[in-house]
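Thread: "does anyone have the structure for this chain?"

Original post by V.I.:
We have the sequence but no experimental structure in hand. Need at least a predicted one for the grant figures.
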Amino acid sequence: MEKNQIKATLSIFFIKLSAKLSLPVAQRLGGALGWLVAQLPVEITNVTQKNIELCFPELPAPAQRKLVVESLMHTGYLMMEIGSAWYKSLEENLGLVAKVTGQSIMDKAAAKGCGVIVIAPHLGNWEWLNWYTSQRHPGVMVYSPPKHEQFDAVLRQSREIGGGQLAPANAAGVKMVYKHLKQGGVVYILPDQVPGKEGGVVASFFGIPAFSMTLVSRLARKTGASVVAVYGKRLPAHRGFEVVYIDADERIYSKDIQLSVAGLNATVEACVRDAPEQYQWSYKRFKRCPQLGLNIYNGHL
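Reply from O.Q.:
Generated one for you, tokens below.
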């Protein structure tokens, strides 16, 4: 068995094992792991620190440091929650919904019959969120297939069992998404990943130039679909999750691609500001942006 195969098998074993934990136990363990990582000078900590320094310059250093620790603790929560999101039953996962805000926003958008693009930032627990959204409004989810086939199989099974359908982030997947929207369907997209060189423009995110995807803007313009944002926010004291829907910034419907992407980023930013400690600040969001000069994470473009 090759090395990558062994790593994938062991990872899936531990994820399955974590599925046996209750939410409070999983989050306590994940929080402890995240806190420990935050004390170490490793890449994930350094990237988180850099992103928070860039996006929250108004915060004094102690407050920035506090946000770094909290963010990495939430990353730990997410790691320990994935087992539940992937392997527990529909009833168990839906039982974690403690509160829903803005459901009428999504329902009204879907009722128009013109298609809905739902953007779900990397905020809170987006893996678990799929269980709720797929029950209310099943649709096509755009995703980047994992490099390892074992992970891809598990991911597809967990995301599709709730009622959704996966579309790979490539030309064939985009064609599938476009057709589904033209038929009045619902499409789910993670909007805050750095796109390929041909799939983005530079737009402000927390006041920082960020290479940002144009896919949502192009789909909205070509299909006339509505755009809604959603995220699954962790509640304190291990009380489950709150599902939050918000309307997209109106600029997202602009025919001007630059203005539209600015609206997309503003929508994501509005979500993040509701629970900044729960955002995936460990992701290199500001890479591949010539306006920043040398790559701020590793010293080269």
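V.I.: this helps a lot. The beta strands are 97-101, 116-119, 140-143, 165-168, 186-189, 200-205, 208-213, 226-234, 241-247.
O.Q.: and Residues 90-292 form one domain.
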